[in-house]
Amino acid sequence: MKTGIYGGSFNPVHNGHIHLAETAVKGFGLDRLFLLPSKISPHRSSAEYAPDEDRLEMLRLACEGNDHLFVSDYEIKSDRVSYTIYTVEHFRETYPDDELFLLVGSDMLMSFDTWFRYEDILSNVTLCVVSRENGDLPALKKKAEELGKFGRVLVSDAAPTVISSTEVRKKIAKNKDFTCYLDENVVQYIRLKGLYSVRGEGDLQYNPDDKKKYLKAHLSSKRYNHSLNVAAECRKLAEKYGEDPDKAYFAGLLHDICKELPDDEQKALVLESGYTVCREELDTRSLWHGIAGAYFVKKEFGVEDIDILNSIRFHTVGRAGMSRLEEIVYMGDLISAERDYKDVDKMRKLAYTDLNAAMREAFAFSMKSVIKKGGVIPICTAEGYNFYTRLSV
């Protein structure tokens, strides 16, 4: 059997990693490929690593459904530095009859002859290389030829997917959109666990004063007071759950900014936004303002914080795997001071004692209201209900 080994920090695992793994399985004819997150890398500082178990879980989520990809915790559980020779020796002992293949990225190949006991590695495995940068194949093949005197080295001609974990972490820390780089289940996990977030560094200032002037001029008195109440509720929830209170207040304040725009203007913003919008949302006028509002504050106010934008965009419909700020705005809108529906006090109490359970109840409440009115349930709302129901089991 042909067994592959693919180690790395996977911090976090991204689509480039999975592309490289799937390319190797197909291109080198592997029967299975083990992906191993390193515990302590000799090449990198561990200061920015997500916890070991989180990196393992993200890998499992990214590999889910692929019959050839497996996740190993060997290096995570090792009590010594993750030098590759130790991993190779482990797999040689575990699978003595298998043909072993070691998968590395192009950047690793170029420095491979500096690795600890690299000659021993090459005597035990076939080294497999998949390009990670456009235009680097000639250099890779030259390096492979140099290393060929120590063992077998194969280079894939497949086109690379150029993604950097470092850049993904920077986007997350600065609240830029990072969802296109990762499996959607990994995105939800990062949001749920609050990984890679940077707080308190003042990257963005959330000054609500000028926004209040705009809202007062463009909203009815009733809607403006509701916005102030939601903002105040969001601040209290943020203080309860360890989020930035100023940021939560800012997002709550702006959540209904497009609520009273004429229908044609709201729909035009929705269509212009470029956001993914399901048919049920597009056909339901009362849902346009969240989508329109997120795009409006980005376009007109220059707000680029993806967490704030998503909090506005999903404050009515919700979705699976909402960030903590999204949850806060969603609940803040539902339990603000002027709300007086039946059982609102029960919902308020739950929001401050068990936010996951409150989200489940809020989704159920929302869907019941829509069904009672003969409306349709957006896909993201149904997915959100299922998500928080599973969390609460």
From TrEMBL:
Alphabetized PROSITE patterns for the sequence: HD
GO MF annotation, one: ATP binding
SMART domains: HDc
Alphabetic keyword roster: ATP-binding, Hydrolase, Iron, Metal-binding, NAD, Nucleotide-binding, Nucleotidyltransferase, Pyridine nucleotide biosynthesis, Transferase
One GO biological process term: NAD+ biosynthetic process
Catalytic activity: nicotinate beta-D-ribonucleotide + ATP + H(+) = deamido-NAD(+) + diphosphate; P(1),P(4)-bis(5'-adenosyl) tetraphosphate + H2O = 2 ADP + 2 H(+)
Biological function: Catalyzes the reversible adenylation of nicotinate mononucleotide (NaMN) to nicotinic acid adenine dinucleotide (NaAD).
Family indicated by similarity: Belongs to the NadD family.
Protein name: Probable nicotinate-nucleotide adenylyltransferase
Originating species: Ruminococcus flavefaciens
Gene this chain is encoded by: nadD
